[in-house]
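Encode chain A's predicted structure.
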Amino acid sequence: MKALIVDDDFYSRNMIHEILRGVAQCDIAVNGEEAIEAFRRGVKDGERYDLICLDLLMPEMDGQQALREIRAIEKEHKVAPQNEAKVIVTTMLDDKKETHDAFFLGGATSYLVKPIDEEKLLSEVRSLGLL
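Encoded structure for chain A:
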């Protein structure tokens, strides 16, 4: 499994990386712009991401915008819906509007509220069929 961890917070990035590194090849981005660049490069190189753990609140470009761009790249490259990256939104926000926007406007697959613990994250990854 190939995973992209997108979070501006060092502690959160590191925690998710520690959890996933035993089961995935992990790349890291610190904001939405870096995430889009990494995602676009992966698609072009034929090494798409299976999983993206995406924070919503980040500087420069937030997670909502990054997610819309990622889904647009998949459409542009004619990625079949069943082959789209699974996106777990990881955020401090336990907010109904943000949840709605992530799922229905952005195409998120799942939503976890921080702090993320190993059991919750791995259980979610399993439920998405990636483990």
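The mean pLDDT is 90.
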